[in-house]
Amino acid sequence: MDNTTEKKKIMLSGIKPTGDLTLGSYLGAIKNWAERAEQFDCYYFMADLHALTTRNDPALLRRRTLEQLAQYVACGLDPQKNTLFIQSHVPAHAELGWILNCYTMFGELSRMTQFKDKSAKNADNINGGLFTYPSLMAADILLYQPDFVPVGDDQKQHVELTRDIANRFNNLYGETFRMPEPFIPKVGARVMDLLNPHSKMSKSDEVGNGRVCLMDAPEDIMRKFKRAVTDSDSERCVRYAPEEKPGVANLMSIYAAVTGKSFAEIEAEFEGQGYGVFKPTVGEAVVETLRPIREEATRIMKDKAYLENLCREGAERASYIANKTLRKVYKKVGLVAR
Ligand code: TRP
Questions:
Q1: Per CATH, is 218-298 categorized as 1.10.287.1490?
Q2: 203 an active-site residue?
Q3: Mind listing the pLDDT tens digit for each residue in 163-218?
Q4: How far is the CA of 222 from the centre of ligand 1 (A)?
Q5: CATH label, 9-184+303-333, candidates 3.40.50.300, 3.40.50.620, 3.40.190.10, 3.30.1330.10
């Protein structure tokens, strides 16, 4: 790594490979990540160890992990400018995870709202990993000494806990971990479900008619947009009114995000035309936006040598940093040097 990247602030985020990336993930987040690399030294990893807290089909998990990685690259995350890797390829995550388990309190883990939600949903599989997941997440973060961790609302509590664990450790053994700040990312378009514009387009909605995935074929995308709910108001015109017309507003936001047009320009464009013209036009714009991403991700998935190389290089770069922190920790807590 050269000096210029070393001076940048460090940012890190993990993504669980347990669903398909959607138009919502792209327009709401990933699209903005490529330019982040100019300002920050960024680490992104596929959190496959975290995926094990719930049951998965092994072949599917393996495939999704690689596909997700390929899709991030296809969305514009340059593996030369960002460190992209698979969590399980850097053993330091599991190693520090164990140690931090010993510095995380039962009471703290019991208070995590995600644990409470998930154990209610998976009552037949409330395993130890589900419970101690936040200390693995703390290890994921603290290994890289990041300044910022971009997270959504559902993960804020875990970042707070990470800070508490880091503080506890630093107080006991002296400055070891940098205190990470949660980073509220600039939100792109907030994309809602096409059939239910009151709820967010979900990564794991298995039915899938209300969500568009990055890898969907053009004809499927068109079909989903043609069937998208509009609103049963009497004017039946394209006007931005999120309260009264949430379905139309959602389609307008999507169209604005993929074309760069303003709401006023969109209203003018469809003046005097009904939803029957509007919906397929939005569909076509989305098809064209996703086409190069789908093609590039497909190309990467077929190029086994490229993919293997990508994984290996990412894991090597990540391990170098992670192992430095891990060695410090091992020494501080009293493990005998290898
Ligand atoms: N827990 C996060 C999620 O469910 C994924 C994750 C794992 C993560 N480790 C992380 C996010 C470290 C940020 C930093 O979405």
A1: no
A2: yes
A3: 999 999 999 999 999 999 988 887 778 899 999 999 999 877 666 789 999 999 99
A4: 33
A5: 3.40.50.620
